[in-house]
Amino acid sequence: MFFQKPQPRPRGVPLDDLEAALAPTTLKATRKGDSLIVVNDNLTTRVDVEAPANPDAGDAVISAIVTIKTQLPSQLAALSGKPGFVDMINRMATLGAVTEENGQLYIGSRLTVYEGENAWNVQFGLILFTIIAAADTMLGAMRRTFSNEPPRKSEPSSWTEQDLDFAHSQLSRLCVCTRGGLGLTAEFGLRSGEVSAAAGHSHTALWQMMADQPHPEMGGGLFCLLNMPQTFRDERGLSSVLAELNRMEMQGNDLPPHFGAWCPGGRQNNPAYVSFLPNALHATRGIALNMSIWAMNRAQVADAMLQTMQLANAQRKP
């Protein structure tokens, strides 16, 4: 039987370029069919390119689903049943979420690729740095937290007020948006006619980007936080919802790119989505605006999911 060489770009996804970009690093990357396998010490990351279950996305066509999964050590899986443990880890997320599947924990990210999208200038860097750093930075932040080590010393954020001014100039056309210092705040209306909590509206999601909030392990960058308005009465109920949201994010659907994690929000009893972009991604033109547009879409999708979950829970109660 002849050995069949893997396609360099399965379904148009440039796995060949990713492999080449990893070559100068200490990571060992190999191809297996439509997957890229990357080994980093005791951690293994798989980048899988798959056909969508349903390519129809309304006015667009899905060409590929890309998932990035890094299996976590089995000793961490043993702790996953501890109340609040996974939620605590996901608060420290950068570009992926700790997610449970068949009793195993992995750090997962996903990208839905559309035909004719031509967005690899943004997407490629996100996938590359997810492979390189998502697991290490989360595990490093955990180590610092548990051992009470100080945050890693680093350079200030590469994002400037001018970067956030540009994102504000575009985003303010779509929603209520304010700027100040190294931060940007926007509100996404989730119901018709609702635009801002300041106007007494209760169905809005709060979006923040902050360049003055370094990650404890990754250092300087851009901290992104989407707070949803829904609240839950107990920690167990919220944890269950967050786990389900992170699992849904990994599905091959018409969803915004998943480079972050669902975790407890600013009110402690609400869901929130957190991401952290390292300084190395600052050179990716327009990435802060892209994150904002994805957050706007994610808020709408999550709102619909949360309504469905709450309705299902209400129907199960006697």
Summarize the structure.
The protein has 318 residues and is of the alpha+beta class. The chain has helices spanning 15-22, 74-77, 85-90, 120-146, 161-171, 235-249, 287-316, and strands spanning 28-32, 35-40, 43-50, 56-57, 60-71, 97-101, 104-114, 176-180, 183-189, 204-210, 221-227, 261-264, 271-278. The strands form 2 sheets. Strands 1, 2, 3, 4, 5, 6 and 7 form a 7-stranded antiparallel sheet that branches.
Strand proportion, as a percent range, falls in 25-35%
User: What summary fits the major beta sheet?
Assistant: 7 strands, antiparallel
Total helical elements: 7
Low-confidence stretches: none
| Whole-number tally of structural domains | 1
**Helix amount, in percent?**
25-40%
Number of strands: 13
Q: Please, what is the average pLDDT?
A: 90
Give a structural overview.
It contains seven helices and 13 strands. With 318 residues, the protein is of the alpha+beta class. The chain has one domain (10-316). Strands 1, 2, 3, 4, 5, 6 and 7 form a seven-stranded antiparallel beta sheet that branches. It is globular. It comes from Albidovulum salinarum. This is Beta-lactamase enzyme family protein.
